[in-house]
Design a protein that fits this description.
By secondary structure, the chain is an alpha/beta fold. The protein is built from ten helices and nine strands.
Amino acid sequence: MDEVVDFLWERAAGDLLPWAAQLEAAGQFGLSLAAVEKRILEQGLLPARYQRNRSTVSTEEQLQLFNSRVAVIGCGGLGGYIIEELARLGVGHIVAIDPDIFEEHNLNRQLLSTPASLGKAKVDAAAARIKEINPAVTLEAVQKAFTKENGYQLLQGVTVAVDALDSISFRLELAETCTEMDIPMVYGAIGAGTVTLPPSYRGTPPSSAPIAIGWKGRGSKSSWGILPSLRLWWLACRWRRSARSSLAKGSSCVIGS
């Protein structure tokens, strides 16, 4: 074991490592908080902030989440909530894509909008928010509109794409790009959410056979808070691994209720 690993084990309470110890390790060894978090998870320890994730996510899976790169396209009414949930869940790298700035009409519903953020880029507000709530998460701010032309570049290396767009035409372009790049896509609407797995994930040719995810809610955009967006994808993939052989062409499965 190296000095960092010894340090982490000495300060662990059982298999949990307090945030204060994570900060101390970063300062003492000149590491980023992200690097420390990765070392913690690789040792089979768990940052204490994630202990309530255990009902659905193992420590091994928490490391997989940390190593994931999730793109959220749209940082407004839906996207702001999704980005926050992903950061709190422990996704290690978030790519936030949105060309817009905050305007006054956003203030009544968009999580990231404040009077102080008016006139500022939505992706920059997202980066500031994530730095505040979970500094171990890296947020890449991309102030661009997603199009078919730049989609391959924006989604390069992405594990999963989350659609939080308010334009049907751009949503269709995103879906087409994800299918071509073999990237699972999570998309939401009022009162519903769906995970679409590309052919190589499902073992079936068409992209028109989505794995649908349902959950209880009052139909507001904040229903994402009941079951965070990446957990939808995570549950779908876990279900797919256990039942892949029985998934017939054109079929779908509802997870949760």
